[in-house]
Amino acid sequence: MWIEKIELINFKAYQKQIFTFPKPEQDRNLVLIGGKNGFGKTTLLEALYLCLYDKDAISHLGRAGLKEDSYKKFLQSALHGKTLIASSDKKMSVSVRFMEKENYGFEITRTWFFDSKGDFLDSDTELRLDEINNGIKKIYDKDELADILEIYAVPATLAPFFFFDGEEVKKLADKNREGWIKEGMESLMGVILLKNLTTRLGQYRNTRKPRKENLITKTELDAKLNSLTNSKEQLEKVQNEYSFYKEEIDKKTAIRNDLHNQLQNLGVGNKNIKNVADILTAIAKEKSSLAMIEKQLEKLLVELFPFYLVASNLKESLKKQLTREKTRLDWESLKSELEPRKQSFSEKFFETNSFKDLKNYLNDNAIKKLHDCIDNAWEMLYFPEPPDCADKILHSYLEQKQRQKLELSFSNKINAAQITELVNQKSHILQKLKNLESTKIKIESIDNDGVLNRLHAELKNIQAELDDKTKKFYDLDRKRIGLASEIHHAQAAYEKQYEKYKISEPAKSNADKAERVINLIQELFPRLFSLKINEVSQAVGKYYRQFSHKKQIANIDIQEDGSYRLFSEDNKEIKFDRSAGENEIFVTALFAGLAEVSKYNIPLVVDTPLARLDKDHRKNLLAYWCSDSNRQVILLSQDTEIDEQVMESLKPHLSKTYLLKSVSIGEGIYETTGIENAYFGDK
Description:
20 helices, about 675 residues, 6-stranded antiparallel sheet, about 60% helix, alpha/beta, about 15% strand, Rossmann fold
């Protein structure tokens, strides 16, 4: 992997600058970027970190030069001064393109936005990740950046061993090394991340305690699950029986229908007709129906139809006369009923005390006249005659019942439809009688040989079986529906209890898992250290011997706590005070050893790489950087670090150079520009 491009827009001293670097090949793997102090060398290292790792550059990568500044404070101070003053569109961006192989790689672009006062808008940070394939860009899922860096570049925890500041190396060389040696090894093996994970797992384990109302044991949950499983097995058994009886019913129904068809073909398909006796009964029934129809026809044709033929005016005149005669007969009947009462009234009148007192003063003629007055008065009760009363009874030959029957005849109506209906019914019955007679003949011919009895017996038996299986089928259906409902409710209850169980079981499940992971981490890393520590010691010793011009140190033994010991070739421990340059060489060797053990083949980017080293140490270190022609090395150097002689020795390994120039653009603002293929001393 190599860095192909770094682009900075409005980032610190760079208003807009693009650095491009070729692929390391043909022993040319070295890039020199020269600049005096304050011209923007360290800015390049900061931009690289921020573009790749964003906030992790602050918290994990202090050696990049970000020191103790907060993320927000650093970004606000990094916005280019001209943009802060003049531009309305206040944003800053860094883009880094790295290639995994020829024509394939990734480009990461981060853009930070600021308000009109230059305050950083944290929520508006933008990240873009592009996949580059044969020069074509394709937007990649930005959530996969960490994985891309892990696979193709280097994760944040290991970046300081590849991208580092020589000034920071010098500071580390002057300090007690045990702490940062251990820190370096822990970064190599991911211990820092796992320590944080252990702490968070412990917090999770301690805080995930169940509520009392959500407590449910695994035994209780298993009991409910077993009950539910048993119910499901029972339902499956019932379902199988249900399906079996359904098939049996279908089979028996087919047999029954076949028997019905045979009987039908014999002429006894009717379930009520099984033998000759049944036929005779059916014939008698149909003849009775025929007699009733004929009687109705007779009534219509003999009694009502002749009357229906009389002229309507004659019928109306007769109806009117009979109505008037009825009124007279009713009047005369009432008069006859009241006649006996007249005599009773007369007798009672002449027996009253009032008449007896008056009788002494009346003669016989007066008394006779008084009787006549009573008779006349009684007669007046019946006069005048009713106005619709007949003058004479013309139809005295009619009795009361005959009159009523005749009056009813006026209300009865007859039409052709009634007669047609009765005639059709009679024809239908006659046809049925004919069919029954024909069937009777057929049955009489087969009844004697037992075929009919056998078919009826088979039909009876199959119907009994069908009834029995149908009853069992519906019993099973009810049981099946009941079990399904029971299982539905039991399933819901189980799921509810399971949810409670998941809540109530962190101490037994999730918390136990967290505890097991914690224990695994605590058990694993001492073993991992023991496996890796020897490899790290050998790699650091190799590079220390390569960098240092003193050859009395043969081996370096680094311990798990970060302490280390130096040994001579005869395996004796060496204790002596090293110079500042040798200390810096030791720290650089440690960086190189840790980088080698990590197995990441990525570029080295070193800021101020040779500042405090003597000639021999510089030569050895530069030889190391040029030794791997496939690893890109970008050195950010001051004007005093690489003289003409060293520059001459490096030329066969140089793939590109830049010289940083800084000019004032007014109002105390400077702008840095990188001049391609130029370096200190060029004329």
